[in-house]
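Continuing the batch. This is chain 6 of the set; chains 1 through 5 are on the previous pages. Same settings as before, nothing changed between runs. Recording input and output for traceability.
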Amino acid sequence: MDINILEKKIRSKIIKEYIKKVGINKVVCFTCGNATQFMRDEGIDVLSLGENEDLNPCYWWTQEKINKTFKNYFNATSGDLPLFLMYKIANKLKKELGNYKSGKIKIGSGETALCLKLAFPKAKIELYRDGNKETIYSPKANLNQLLKILYPKTNVFN
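Output for chain 6:
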């Protein structure tokens, strides 16, 4: 089972529940992976930004810029979700994965790694990047500093 794909499926359901609860009809998602497709599969109206997406940004957008530009949208960019939603994802991962003890996890934004750490704080998780554009390290990614603390022995932050 690909934990990254499982996390994207779970996060899509969590986002759908959340935006319905708070009365938001659209989401914006900067992506280079599967996040947009899984949200669309859930019936979420997504404005997707990235290579081969609805719009192609020419530079890194901060959370502040995304929220200022797309005021009527929920920011569903991987790594930008509020912690309480990541915690909900973690709880679902815990139910799905049961007694998860260790594994090798491909990292992009780091959201999956954080959610796994929340779900399984004692698990031995090895992070890696596979060289594809989805997993290229970005020094501006929001979760970098937190993940460096949670995974101090990894070398994926360069």
